[in-house]
Write a structure and sequence with these properties.
mainly alpha, globular, single chain
């Protein structure tokens, strides 16, 4: 759910900005419904808004995968220290500032209990995460950080095999095994939980927050990056059908949303619903990259800014809305009042913007100065990256 260097010289891809803005909007609306209003404030959009995280996963899989595969395709190869330094400078400063708010300012976290600090610092918080704990939405950041740590090593090993005469088929086989493993793990955990005293608690703790169970979209994004960097001809042929990709993606996502809305916690939805979301979001990403598609050409007002601030907004929006809604309710403006909704949304964006300007921007400048990208500047600016 992250952006690349904040330089305005970089050429932006409006379709990717739109998708990133859509992802953070869905999450904000869902968390407002879940933690503030406890009602169908935004209808089905608020109910299904959790899928914004899955869209972030698909975007991260493609953007990070593209960085890695592109670097591996150059004579210099992939500099692992440089990659990890850039990732950590990108993700840690904002995260540490918000974590400090939870740890040091009791009013910020409210009555929700903190987990041991080491679980946040090591990005293992999502493992058997207890629902209802402080900073719970950081579970998705844990999965992304784990992904950032593992993917470069796996890709570098694959590149070594490639130089030894192995074709890219190994990579496609590994991706396929990852999807199959995720489905098998979800099915097993689902069956094991049938005797649980609190089924919903079991589902969220062992399925929804689990790295193994929620890697479908990340793997789908990596598959797109692999297609682009190892099968260029096929990539171009696929992108020639931009609006068809957009229509197919919308249809797949619509079917997944309907399925989850009808039977979110059922066995078949648990096993196959996430791969269907991964397929739909992957098709939307392809449409966002296809010059002939409406999604590529359409420039949504404000989407570029929301995309740029999306990581910061994601980190702070939930507690900002929770804290602001309380005095508004005491003044007679309940959580479903239009004024409360508008102020909470504006405050979430403003808080995210402040975090972006005061913390993220200086570190991005530091990164640009001291840790150059693995790809030449011209290539790095050709696409909005994670």
């Amino acid at each position: 759910m992250n952006r690349a260097d904040t330089t305005h010289a970089a050429r932006r891809i409006h379709g990717l900005d739109t998708l990133r803005a859509l992802a953070v909007t869905l999450v904000v609306l869902h968390h407002y419904t879940l933690f503030v209003s406890d009602a169908a404030t935004f209808g089905w959009v608020g109910e299904i808004g959790w899928a914004g995280v899955d869209l972030f996963f698909a975007l991260s899989g493609y953007l990070i995968g593209n960085q890695i595969f592109r670097a591996l395709g150059r004579p210099q190869g992939l500099s692992m220290p440089r990659f990890y330094a850039r990732r950590l400078l990108r993700t840690l400063p904002n995260f540490y500032v918000v974590l400090a708010l939870y740890a040091l300012w009791p009013a910020w976290r409210g009555s929700t209990p903190m987990l041991p600090l080491w679980q946040y610092l090591t990005f293992t918080q999502n493992i058997h995460l207890e629902p209802g704990t402080a900073f719970s939405h950081a579970w998705s950041l844990c999965i992304e950080e784990q992904f950032y740590m593992l993917l470069p090593a796996a890709a570098a090993f694959g590149a070594f095999l490639g130089r030894s005469g192995t074709s890219p088929r190994w990579a496609w086989a590994m991706l396929a095994l990852g999807w199959i493993a995720g489905m098998l793990v979800r099915a097993t955990i689902w069956h094991d939980g049938q005797g649980a005293a609190n089924w919903m608690h079991h589902y969220y703790k062992y399925v929804y927050y689990s790295s193994w169970c929620r890697c479908d979209e990340l793997l789908a994004g990596v598959a797109l990056a692999l297609l682009k960097n190892r099968h260029g001809g096929a990539w171009q042929r696929v992108l020639a059908h931009g609006n068809r990709l957009l229509a197919a993606g919308a249809a797949a996502i619509g079917a997944a949303f309907h399925w989850f809305a009808a039977d979110h916690y059922g066995l078949w939805t648990t096993v196959f619903g996430y791969p269907l979301l991964a397929l739909g979001f992957s098709l939307l990403i392809l449409a966002a990259l296809a010059p002939g598609s409406l999604l590529y050409r359409l420039r949504v007002p404000g989407a570029a800014s929301l995309a740029l601030w999306s990581y910061a907004i994601y980190l702070v929006h939930k507690q900002v809305s929770v804290m602001l809604a309380k005095p508004l309710a005491a003044a007679g403006y309940g959580p479903e009042h239009l004024l409360t909704i508008a102020l909470c949304m504006l405050a979430s964006v403003l808080a995210g913007w402040l975090l972006y300007r005061l913390v993220e921007t200086p570190f991005m400048r530091l990164r640009a100065r001291w840790v150059p990208d693995n790809a030449p500047v011209r290539e790095a600016r050709a696409e909005a990256e994670a």
